[in-house]
Amino acid sequence: MKRIAIYIIMCVALFTACSYDEEIEVCDVYVTLVYPEGSIQPYKGARVELKDMSASIYVDSTNAQGVSHFRMPSGIYEASTSSQLIDSSDVTWWRYNFNGVRSMIIVSRDSTNKVDIKLRMSKKRVVH
Questions:
Q1: Which of 11, 56, 98, 121 is most buried, with most CB under 10 Å away?
Q2: Which residue, among 123, 33, 36, has the nearest Cα to 85 in the 3D structure?
């Protein structure tokens, strides 16, 4: 009888002591592309990638203000972008290539989670 009572108490203690929360906390992350002065205005649709430490890649594109929005678990990330734009608004057409990367971005509930990527640009005339 004593053994059964001890066994029941141990089982109750075991099942009530375990609490496992499976919900992963995510944070809003805003990545802003900063274009070189005198180049072009931000545009909608530039590809932005976030890569975590396990090499998982998350992709979004920018809005018209050059900002992309991610909802990510806390961790350390690298943000990168590479895009091409052809400006045909004038008689002379130009191809703009933009690249940028920012490493060691800490995403957490306590961080601002706002990241700027300064872009490098190359510009080439498009000949028809």
A1: 98
A2: 123
Please give the structure tokens belonging to residue 83.
């895009």
Helix residue ranges per DSSP H, the chain: 2-17
Q: Pull the structure tokens for residue 91.
A: 């008689």
User: Beta-strand (E) ranges in 22-127?
Assistant: 26-34, 47-52, 57-61, 67-73, 75-87, 93-107, 114-118, 120-126
Residue 85, C-beta contacts closer than 8 angstroms, at least 6 positions apart: 40, 43, 95, 96, 98
- 62 in Cβ contact with 33 (< 8 Å): yes
Using one digit for the tens of pLDDT, what is the confidence trace for 54-78? 999 999 999 999 999 999 999 999 9
**Structure tokens given for 113:** 């989670």
pTM of the model: 0.77
Query: Residue 32: beta bridge partners?
Result: 67, 116
